[in-house]
Input
Amino acid sequence: MFLEKMLQSQGFGSRKHCQQLIKNGAVAIQGEVISNVKHKLNLNDLTFTVYGESFDYREKVYIALNKPQGYECSHQATHHFSVFDLFDDVLLNRGLQCVGRLDQDTSGLLLLTDDGQFLQALTHPKKHVAKVYRMHTADPVTVEQIQQLEQGVELRNEAGLFAATDVMQLGDNELQLTIHQGVYHQVKRMLAAVGNRVEQLHRQQIGGLALPELEEGQWIYLDPVQIDLAKQRMAI
Ligand code: URA
Output
């Protein structure tokens, strides 16, 4: 691949802008400044610098963020911050998208990618990718509520029953459960349907991928094993 094309693919702007960067001597590979826009590259394990900042070539990006509360999963956040504020322009230029959404007041594991197939594989309703949530509830959780959640509840304007699996009481007002769909406000609505209320919600796992050790607001690139884990289907 030509250097100008590679830079463009990595989010460094238009072809013209990438050509300008190269001509300005801003781009180096293994310490050598390359000023030929048509310099041919081997993309395997390629690292390069732009104005001294180092980048690894990535065909696609797969990111795990520990989303803090108070951030919306939309580009045009209206009343809160946007999760996209946590990423630099080079990543945003690649067309980073959230893999499903978390409410602004929900924290925890949020995946982001520029790979449409990955996004589809994780969010398509027929894929039933499991999502594990922990929550603090307004009222103590009862045995009846757990049974109802396991059996399935109706949600207004949604067809069918919504059931949780692996429901575990972690404390009087602390609950963990797994859902296999992803309709709007699903967990909060399920808890409301059994007569309780979610006060704090945190996503702990997607597919087989648990939230990596990250401070709130921190993120990492997923490696190939973690990408596969996220897609993994768990028994329903
Ligand atoms: N269910 C909810 O109610 N909110 C979320 O953010 C995620 C799942």
Notes: The chain has a mean pLDDT of 96. The CA atoms of residues 11 and 88 lie 10 Å apart. The chain has three domains: 3-56, 62-125+208-231, 130-206.
